[in-house]
């Protein structure tokens, strides 16, 4: 039995070692290990034992533990330690996979039609004068001359919601059109209220979140002292650089001064190669002009620039989002079976087809708001980009993709509807009697992660919870709580406009 156990452990270690080699920080980790192996702490006469001792004494052990932590999170199977290609695997439900393919083709066709209407190419190589101008204005991209008058967003959240409404389970016979009030005919398992209470049980201790206690400083003199104590504790937590401990600390929200560092540690975005990667992406922006760039610029102008909380970040948002469109690593999170990106030739270059856009994402109206709140956390664009990218790859990509995953936008909509229907029946019945679909009230909140709908500090507290509990389920839970809190007012109105 012991022999089988040792063999199983050995095979698991081998598989884990293979998986770690695929991670972004492997190169940096391996280089640090080589430096350590060549140091005086490691003896060639007893290489194995002295190397293990040296690893345990320094930061290498913590880095390795963090690497395993991020690997476990990405595979979501920490009990059996079996590698599951959960993100890139084939969607199990055929009709959802076909719906995603149809939706992608639809928005791609809309993009191509826009090109024909405006009379521009999807992508082309920049002239030297254009490149020099953009490089000169890189830190002031809002002044870069771009004509956006004839451009419009390819789609908005309400368009995507209509697609979700049109989903049809072929194994379920619709009895009447009334069934569209609920998604229960879709076989997606979501948590019950009891399960959510267990997941967020730490919040039931009646300890106020740090961001909320800040609001009561004027009425409670001890609050400031408590915040200072928590900052001191947070500094100690960050000294150890152990991601799971940082994640546990975050459950009562982060002090403003520490939030960026905590997020970076938990999301694993503090990779040394980030600066080189960002430089490469910037070079691609300078070399190639794409229609997607203009859509991003238009979105920044329509959203962040019109928001009193985010307009000051216009220039850095241009930088971050233009680099993001060139990041081909983002393709890895999308279901490979439903990815049908446009293949295009670059104007002004030899005929060669390439995926368009390079990151596989055609932005919707409000896409920039995924990045805007993170601008409050970093002064350095490299750290800002790497953290935004890590956040997107971990969470946000699920909010505009049709999938049966419990935390996909479809799963979150189902969770919201079931919680509202079962625990706020008066609101549900009132909406139904006046032909107001509840999900239409909150869908834009869910799809944008409440960005643009909450004040930045409130929003960052909410995103603390997403990272701390590694779950997007807090979004529909908050949506139901808001409707519950405003129940008396909602029961007095009878149109969607008045509800908004």
Characterise the protein shown here.
The chain is mainly alpha-helical and 500 residues long. The protein is 53% helix and 3% strand. The chain has 23 helices and 4 strands. The protein has helices at 2-20, 26-37, 47-57, 60-75, 94-118, 128-136, 157-165, 193-199, 210-213, 222-240, 243-249, 259-267, 274-287, 291-302, 314-325, 381-394, 409-423, 425-433, 438-447, 456-468, 474-485, 487-490, 496-499, and strands at 123-125, 288-290, 342-345, 353-356. It has a two-stranded antiparallel ribbon with strand order 1-2. Strands 3-4 form a two-stranded antiparallel sheet. Helix 13 (274-287) crosses helix 15, helix 17 (409-423) crosses helix 18 (425-433) and helix 17 (409-423) runs parallel beside helix 21. The longest helix is centred in the N-terminal third of the chain and has 25 residues, at 94-118. The chain starts with a helix and ends with a helix.
The major β-sheet equals: 2 strands, antiparallel
Q: Quickly give the structural class.
A: mainly alpha
What distance separates the N and C termini?
63 Å
Low-confidence stretches: 77-88, 214-221, 336-341
- Secondary-structure element order, N to C: HHHHHEHHHHHHHHEHHEEHHHHHHHH
**Percent of residues in beta strands:** under 5%
* Radius of gyration over C-alpha positions, nearest whole angstrom: 25 Å
Enumerate the strands of the largest sheet in spatial order, edge to edge or round the barrel. Answer: 1-2
- Mean pLDDT score, rounded? 83
Query: What is the overall shape?
Result: globular
Contiguous helical run count: 23
The total beta strand count reads 4
- Measured as a percent range, the helix fraction is 40-55%
């Amino acid at each position: 039995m012991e022999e089988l156990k040792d063999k199983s452990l050995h095979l698991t270690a081998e598989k884990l070692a293979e998986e770690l080699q695929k991670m972004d920080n492997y190169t940096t980790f391996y280089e640090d290990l080589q430096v350590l192996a060549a140091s005086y702490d490691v003896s060639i006469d007893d290489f194995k034992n002295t190397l293990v001792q040296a690893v345990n004494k320094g930061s290498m052990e913590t880095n390795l533990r963090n690497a395993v932590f991020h690997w476990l999170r990405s595979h979501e199977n920490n009990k059996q330690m079996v590698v599951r290609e959960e993100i890139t695997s084939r969607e199990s439900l055929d009709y959802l996979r076909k719906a995603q393919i149809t939706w992608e083709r639809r928005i791609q066709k809309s993009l191509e039609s826009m090109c024909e209407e405006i009379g521009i190419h999807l992508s082309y190589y920049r002239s030297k004068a254009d490149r020099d101008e953009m490089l000169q204005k890189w830190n002031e991209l809002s002044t870069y001359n771009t004509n956006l008058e004839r451009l419009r967003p390819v789609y908005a959240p309400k368009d995507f919601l209509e697609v979700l409404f049109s989903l049809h389970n072929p194994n379920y016979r619709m009895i009447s059109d009334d069934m569209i009030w609920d998604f229960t005919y879709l076989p997606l398992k979501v948590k019950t209220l009891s399960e959510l209470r267990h997941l967020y049980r730490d919040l039931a201790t009646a300890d106020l979140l740090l961001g909320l206690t800040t609001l009561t400083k004027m009425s409670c003199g001890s609050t400031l002292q408590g915040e200072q104590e928590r900052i001191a504790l947070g500094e100690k937590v960050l000294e150890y650089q152990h991601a799971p401990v940082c994640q546990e600390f975050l459950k009562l929200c982060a002090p403003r001064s520490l939030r960026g560092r905590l997020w970076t540690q938990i999301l694993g975005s503090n990779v040394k190669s980030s600066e080189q990667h960002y430089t490469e992406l910037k070079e691609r922006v300078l070399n190639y002009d794409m229609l997607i760039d203009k859509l991003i610029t238009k979105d920044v102008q329509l959203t962040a620039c019109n928001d009193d909380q985010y307009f000051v970040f216009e220039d850095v948002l241009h930088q971050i989002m233009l680099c993001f469109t060139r990041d081909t690593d983002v393709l890895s999170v999308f279901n490979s079976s439903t990815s049908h990106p446009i293949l295009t030739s670059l104007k002004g270059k030899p005929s060669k087809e390439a995926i368009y856009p390079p990151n596989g994402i055609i932005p919707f109206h409000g896409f920039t708001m995924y990045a805007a709140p993170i601008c409050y956390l970093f002064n350095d664009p490299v750290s800002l980009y790497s953290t935004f990218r890590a956040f997107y790859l971990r969470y946000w990509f699920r909010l505009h993709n049709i999938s049966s995953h419990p935390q996909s936008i479809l799963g979150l909509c189902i969770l919201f509807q079931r919680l509202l229907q079962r625990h706020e029946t008066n609101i549900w019945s009132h909406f139904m009697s006046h032909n107001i679909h509840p999900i239409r009230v909150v869908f834009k909140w869910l799809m944008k992660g409440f960005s643009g709908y909450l004040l930045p500090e409130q929003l960052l507290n909410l995103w603390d919870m997403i990272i701390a509990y590694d779950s997007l389920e807090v979004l529909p839970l908050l949506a139901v709580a808001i409707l519950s809190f405003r129940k008396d007012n909602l029961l007095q109105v009878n149109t969607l406009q008045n509800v908004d």
